[in-house]
Amino acid sequence: MPQRTYTIKDSYFWKITVSLALASFFVFASMYAVQPLLPVFVDAFGVSVSTSSLSLSLTIIGLIVGLIVLGFLSDRSGRTIFIKFSLIGSVIPFFLIPLTHSFILLLFLRLLQGFALAGLPAASLAYLNEEIDKRSVGVATALYISSNALGGMVGRVLTGFITDHYSWETAFYFLAVAGLVILLAVFMLLPKSRFFEPSNLSFSRDIEAFLFHLKNPSLLLVFGLGIVLQFSFTGIWTYLPFHLQGEPFSLSLQAVSNMFFAYGLGVVGSPLAGWLAGNLGLRRIRIFGILTLAVGLFLTLSNSVVVIVIGLCVACLGFFTAHSLTAASVTEQATHHKGSASSLYLVAYYIGVALGSSALGPVWLHTGWKGLVLLTGILPVVYLIFVMVVQSRPRKTAE
Fold it and tell me: From CA 241, how far away is CA 250, in angstroms rounded?
């Protein structure tokens, strides 16, 4: 009797779903844990703001390389091994980083950690689609993606809270121990792959698939939008701690970290955007999301903390609306090799994270918060207008 995929009624469905949700939660908490700590690193290591931001952007660069390399290996060597590798590689640096007094070594360990983090996103969605029944995979995927947003939010808030009351080293040790517990749980719960079939394609064929998409103008516009959205969104959140800990606010690190609770709107925004797009059209709701993001960013120019918090919440709602629909449009625009098209969008998305983390350092240094907000708020709107102009040209020609 042939084996069947797991449904929501099977215990193994929940073992897979809980395992990947826990792994996702920790991986994304690890990725973004340093974001509220950047001013702390400036003081502790005597480095510049731009150098401090490398603790996030180098992690993302490692992640981008890992997505390509580990994604290729995952298609040939299996899924669960890379999910487990991702957790092991995420935990070990948290034990080592507090022992170093060199910021260069800290950056090197964060780079390696970023590479290891990629094992989970490189293998998890393929693993879910292979092992879980098509009627149930949507639930498992939704829980996995929600854990991404939840982990990123909790990682930021938790490290800020612990650092404010104890130290950043204590925060890292706490993450290490939490990761170790999650690692043991995943090792015990995660079932072996039953339907994995190794790919026989060469690495050059994978590269050909990537190049195929890079020749598609419509997809290039989508990839560009992914970069722009994340560039603006990450830029605001990266330099927010410096802004709010300075005059006239002088907020504590814990108070600044609590601002990251606004990410909770991402959990609501993504499914709501999908529902609205189904009823009102993807393009219309995506435009609404981009404009909402811009409005939220401009609200942070206020000298009122309450208005800034409202602005951050509005920006989160707008960003996750626009991002989720942009990601969904990738498979619609791609005519072939849809998997590699989604991977390219993920790479573009994280390029935006890396650029938003460090490339905006000179803007912050020379123009302060006002210049940073004006650039990050205007850029998505300008890019939106550019996309609309480009997409309207074939219509005019046809007419």
Answer: 10
